[in-house]
């Protein structure tokens, strides 16, 4: 048997993360298949895997950094004491931070809080070391309690129940990390097997809770970390499917908590990272709780991960803007075939036939695109998404065919790399080289999922190509442009990415740009206003179009904090 750690140290954290990632990788498809709560969207296993992958990557980065320090300082063995080896606090804090920023979905967000809760105990400054079995007991207890506190309306029969049972079982275990981990695992398995009796939706589907099943896999990896052996199934039930007769007669969820939401639940899942203080997050919780359900807010120390299911995705994001600085915003439209918990007697949905994934520059447009059925990736000024974020969005779209709209000329290669990766995963992807969000709006307007894929792509490409685009922005520095030298603070009017006008007034510059674009003809003008645009600019431009260009319609959208003051599209 290989040597295993006897105490919870940095190497144990590294080993645990690696083994947990492997375990979730093996169980990923199984967990996806039994995902019926809170929404039967078949992605819990994937979300948990991606969350732990982010945690493991962060831990590896800490070790790599200390290895480099050790090499400089003459320490060649990363496992030895000295500058080449991170402390337990370094490792668990990296694990918690990685999980927080990489959390996906409802269960992934809760798992991130479980890991954060453990890290708070294991990394605590105190006279008593928290590296032994007693420390692990305390960590599991704090993890379960803090995760429950992070959920607005805890429901029994979920991963929260399994986490609490694991902590309860660990309380009476013998000393030693291995014994405590095994007791927690066996307690979690027993609680998992009982989940169908606590949630009617699980009993009807004949499955255990998917999030709880994932936590059991993570705890099995913890046992293997401290014993060198993966626990077998003899000690408790680990199987995904359960016997309907065994679950018969057990109480429904209504006797154990809030119970599931009614059938036909919210249309969107909204997730974002948020930089905000504790007081603002308290207000945000109350605001989001009134907007939707499945609310989970985890984190602390100024950085939070927010997850909620809502009908008004834009309002959920706007609430985050009021609280602080939201970023990495992900809005997923639940397809019509999704089963919200009130009516989840059906199996998890099959992948949709077709979906649209779009990069958008502002929160308002993210809501607009999501309402049209698109899965969105938010791109802030100076923070363009990487290909991995686009691949993740394609996965979240959960479709056999995906139309990808980068909406930025500079993202074309990034989007192409993401499309190629998605194709290796069996998804048919068409990349439409949209260079502006207004071109994406035009493409989305003619999107018809019932058409043949090639015909739909051709129609969307044609609509995007027939849309000229422009923007009005403020110069950040002095620079040479096609229209001359601009100074910081000048108002720039850009047509097709080239500066055409340098002005001092936003409305005047926008009018000049609009006139130049309509001089070549047009049937529809699209205006997307940023938060910093003058209040009167939309009415002024609409009046200009109405009075000077017959038979040209105008539509106005609020883009939020989108970078440019104004986006203009002319079809």
UniProtKB/TrEMBL annotation:
Keyword Chloroplast set for record: no
GO biological process: glycerol metabolic process
Keywords carried by this UniProt record: Kinase, Transferase
UniProt key word Transferase: yes
PROSITE patterns: DHAL (PS51480)
One Gene Ontology MF term: glycerone kinase activity
Protein name from the UniProt record: Dihydroxyacetone kinase
Lineage: Bacteria, Bacillati, Actinomycetota, Actinomycetes, Kitasatosporales
């Amino acid at each position: 048997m290989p040597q295993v750690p006897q105490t919870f140290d940095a190497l144990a954290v590294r080993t645990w993360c690696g083994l947990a990632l492997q375990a979730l990788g093996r169980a990923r498809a199984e967990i996806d298949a039994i995902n019926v709560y809170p929404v039967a969207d078949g992605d819990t296993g994937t979300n948990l895997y991606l969350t732990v992958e982010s945690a493991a990557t962060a831990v590896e980065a800490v070790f790599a950094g200390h290895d480099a320090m050790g090499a400089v300082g003459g320490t060649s063995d990363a496992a030895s004491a000295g500058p080449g080896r991170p402390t337990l606090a370094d490792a668990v804090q990296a694990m918690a931070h990685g999980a927080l920023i990489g959390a996906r979905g409802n269960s992934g967000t809760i798992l991130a809080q479980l890991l954060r809760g453990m890290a708070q105990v294991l990394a605590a400054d105190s006279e008593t070391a928290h590296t032994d079995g007693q420390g692990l007991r305390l960590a599991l207890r704090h993890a379960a309690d803090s995760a429950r506190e992070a959920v607005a309306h805890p429901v029994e029969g979920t991963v929260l129940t399994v986490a609490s049972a694991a902590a309860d079982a660990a309380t009476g275990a013998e000393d030693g990390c291995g014994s405590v981990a095994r007791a927690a695992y066996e307690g979690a398995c027993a609680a998992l097997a009982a989940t169908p009796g606590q949630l009617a939706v699980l009993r009807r589907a004949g499955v255990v809770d998917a999030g709880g099943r994932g936590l059991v896999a993570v705890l099995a990896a913890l046992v293997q970390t401290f014993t060198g052996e993966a626990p077998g199934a003899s000690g408790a039930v680990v199987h995904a499917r359960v016997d309907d007769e065994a679950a018969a007669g057990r109480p429904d969820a209504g006797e154990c908590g809030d119970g599931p939401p009614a059938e036909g639940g919210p249309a969107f899942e909204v997730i974002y990272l948020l930089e905000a203080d504790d007081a603002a997050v308290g207000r945000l919780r109350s605001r989001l709780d009134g907007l939707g359900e499945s609310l989970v807010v985890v984190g602390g120390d100024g950085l939070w991960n927010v997850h909620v299911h809502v009908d008004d995705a834009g309002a959920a994001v706007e609430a985050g803007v009021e609280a602080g600085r939201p970023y990495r915003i992900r809005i997923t439209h639940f397809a019509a075939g999704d089963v919200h918990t009130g009516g989840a007697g059906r199996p998890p949905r099959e992948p949709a036939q077709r979906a649209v994934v779009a990069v958008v520059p502002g929160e308002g447009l993210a809501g607009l695109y999501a309402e049209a059925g698109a899965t969105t990736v938010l791109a802030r000024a100076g923070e363009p998404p990487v290909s991995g974020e686009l691949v993740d969005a394609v996965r979240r779209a959960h479709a056999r065919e995906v139309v990808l709209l980068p909406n930025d000329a500079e993202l074309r290669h990034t989007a192409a790399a993401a499309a190629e990766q998605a194709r290796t995963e069996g998804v048919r992807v068409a990349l439409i080289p949209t260079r502006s969000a207004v071109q994406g709006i035009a493409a989305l307007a003619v999107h018809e999922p019932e058409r043949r894929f090639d015909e739909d792509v051709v129609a969307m490409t044609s609509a995007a190509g027939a849309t000229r685009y422009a923007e009005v922005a403020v110069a950040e520095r002095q620079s040479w442009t096609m229209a001359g030298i601009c100074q910081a603070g000048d108002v720039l009017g850009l047509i097709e990415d080239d500066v055409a006008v340098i002005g001092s007034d936003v409305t005047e510059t926008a009018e000049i740009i609009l006139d130049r674009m309509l001089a070549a003809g047009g049937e529809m003008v699209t205006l997307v206003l940023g938060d910093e645009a003058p209040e009167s600019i939309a009415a002024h431009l609409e009046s200009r179009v109405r009075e000077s260009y017959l038979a040209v319609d105008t539509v106005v959208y609020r883009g939020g904090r989108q970078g440019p003051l104004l986006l203009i599209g002319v079809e």
